[in-house]
Amino acid sequence: MASVYAILIGSPMTRVTVVTPSSPESFERYYELRWRVLRKPFRRPRGSEQDEYDQIGDHRMLVNDAGEVIGVGRIHLNSPEEAQIRFMAVAPERQGEGHGVTLIHALEMLALEQGAERVIINSRDNTLGFYVRCGYVLKEEGDTVTNPMAEHQLVKALDTPEYIVYRPDWCRELQKTWHEQIPITEAMGIRIYQYTGRTFEIRAPLPRNINVHGTMFAGSIYTLATLAGWGLLQLHLQERELHGAIVLADGQIQYTQPVIQEPRALATLSTVEGTFDPLAQGQNARFTLEVQVSDGDQVAATFIGKYVIKAVRD
I need a labelling partner for 246 at 20 to 30 A (CA). Which of 19, 107, 132, 145 fits? Predict the structure, then answer.
């Protein structure tokens, strides 16, 4: 089944779909991007972009509305406990837009579905930082002194109770900060469920937030939405190595149906309006963003939050 996500590039919205190549034509385009990104720059011949594990591995590629393949990746099992990601590639003209994280997420989900407890990946120096940001830990360092093309081997454990695809250390620290400095968040059972760099999702158990009608308390829904927006901005503040205190200046919420089972709040980068630039000049930065609070897959409330990041002043 294909999944869809959206990113904001300039002003238009570009839809990108995660698909499984199946036809000869789709595999031809899949291998073409593999070769163009991973083999052609090193003057490797056609055919070198394939290996014997292609027959048993699981393949995923990202395709936009125009039918262009903008990213590819493969995962296969080395053992029942260990999966390996190989041949990760994003078209050079589309790098830096979050597609690599989307591919990693899709492939790691496959590994989890197949029962793997860890994923390994080999990386050259130029992509090492990306995989570290995705939670991979250096297992074996390549000898890049004598061989600049040597690869490092990294590993990521998937058997943790709260698996997060991107910046897991930051997410754990953020959740710890919430629970220690905003005690109600721990009482509500709020936890960070997933961060991809482009989306930030938090959840809370219904029994801790129930009202007299057996549904989620409206104040808990509002709090969940507020923190989802706050968390997305905080993590992107860290991405830019900036500092500031985030406060909610105004928040409007529209409740459309009760939450009766699985409360979850999702903040998406594509809805954010504002810029971090004023912080570099010692000025406050202002943002508006949208958060959807859902009961499972059904949207139950839409929150529009206006946040201010107060600049650190000497």
Answer: 132
Number of Cβ within a 10 Å radius of residue 283: 13
d(CA 213, CA 296) in angstroms, rounded, equals 19
Domains of the chain in start order, with CATH, are 3-157 (3.40.630.30), 168-311 (3.10.129.10)
User: Measured on CA atoms in the order 147, 128, 53, 28, is the torsion positive or negative?
Assistant: negative
- Max Cα-Cα span within the chain: 69
